[in-house]
Amino acid sequence: MSKAPHHILLITCPDRPGIIATVTALLFRHNLNIVVMKEFVDPETNTFFARAEITGELKASSLVKELQKEFDHYSTLIQLKPVSNKNIVLFATKEFHCLSDLIIRHHFKALHANIKAVISNYDTLEAFTSKFDIPFHYISHENKSKEIFEQELIATAQQYKPDYLILAKFMRILSPDFVQQFENKIINIHHSFLPAFVGANPYKQAYERGVKIIGATAHIVNNMLDEGPIITQKIIPVNHEYSVKQMVEAGHEVEKSVLAEALRLVLEDRVFVSNNKTIIFT
């Protein structure tokens, strides 16, 4: 039986012959064992991506330095991360289904992340959150400029040094300045099978269009509304008998599943961002 990995090695660099041989030889010299290694080359950008789970005693800084030297290029990114729970902060408004699902998973140690806090522009979910001894911050957006509101959000979130911000139905459009503070670290759940029905009221849009499937999409937030790199998507069938309300209720179940799966992939360092796409090693 293979040992549990101690570290995850992530490599992004321009493709060239011999990359895998170079990496494996260097790991061997450091007396490290590769449990799993997967790689992919994006032909459009000629970029090599790799994720390796490794075991053994190592000096992280020394290994990364040697790898950087081997792949000396301005666009090379090498990360070595210990296998451990990451810190996340949840953002929410009034809808409970995604937030409660993540908190329940966290309570039963099935989320494999530390929920450090919940931040909301309504106090609707405070009583529920408090039952699990998770700090809840109510920051109203009313009678404030967007700039001041977001400054308060950022200051509160940064107290917890989060690895990721999770928009668990946080129904606010974030400014480019906010997104830049947490580049590629904000995960959103959108209640439609993107790119269909972006923006508000997608279930109503779907009902009026007479669609036969509805779905949900988890994606990384960028400066384009609901157009960030997609992590996971799922769909379910519907028909003419569904009302808007029934579509919403059915969609909530899909949203929970999609967000939880996206978080698993992100928290296990399986997701690479390449322009507006993702490379995901499952």
Brief summary:
Helix content is 32%, strand content 30%. It is α/β, with parallel strands linked by helices.
Structure description:
This protein is of the alpha/beta class and 282 residues long. It has 2 domains: 7-82, Alpha-Beta Plaits (2-Layer Sandwich); 86-280, Rossmann fold. Helix content is 32%, strand content 30%. The chain has 8 helices and 13 strands. It has helices at residues 19-29, 60-70, 97-107, 126-130, 146-158, 176-181, 202-209, 244-267, and strands at residues 7-14, 33-42, 47-55, 77-82, 86-92, 113-120, 136-138, 164-167, 186-190, 213-220, 230-237, 271-274, 277-280. The strands form 3 sheets. It has a 7-stranded mixed β-sheet with strand order 7-6-5-8-9-10-11, with helices on both faces. A 4-stranded antiparallel β-sheet has the order 2-3-1-4, covered by helices on one side. The protein starts with 6 loop residues before the first strand and ends with a strand.
Order the strands across the largest sheet as they lie in space.
7-6-5-8-9-10-11
What does the overall shape look like? globular
Give the radius of gyration. Answer: 21 Å
Domain module count: 2
**Distance from first to last alpha carbon:** 20 Å
Q: What class would the helix/strand composition place it in?
A: alpha/beta
Helical segment tally? Answer: 8
> What's the CATH architecture name of the largest domain?
3-Layer(aba) Sandwich
Q: What is the CATH first-level class name of the largest domain? A: Alpha Beta
